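Protein record
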Amino acid sequence: MYNLVPTFKKAYGNNVVVMVKPVLSDDTEPDYYFLREFIEARNIKILPAYRSLMISIKICDDDQFIFKKCLTNSIERTKKNLLAGHSIEDEQISLLFSDCVIHKPYDIHRFANVIGSIQHSFLDKLNVQFRDLYIKNSKLINDMEYSSRLIGMTSYLLKNANGENTPSIRAA
């Protein structure tokens, strides 16, 4: 499924929400994922003997309620994975800041806005450090170039902070 990312990136934006629902079980609530989060996630399922699993995937209309529900679910999954010590590289929050490091390392303003928003909206409320997002992102931690970029970008923010205590500076 990972090979579908370039195709979907051309057709859909980063914040497109998909509803994932088991077909064989009507009593289960659907899960909501950001499209890229769902495509890149490695969801391993273990089924009991003689059981089947079939899911329905629907791209949702642009609806604020569904978007907020999806974001809440993504935050909960990220929180659960952080607390369990699992990788979070496929979670939307991690994808946002790693995209800045991997694809736009020269756009320091975008990076500052993204990590500031993550710090203010998510990390401060959970008493989690930005460092934890980096450590649990195997894509960044295992690539020396990406790690160096992240260090350089955060160093630049700290160097130019002028004593401010903004969310992006706290994250850096």
About this structure: The two ends are 34 Å apart (CA to CA).
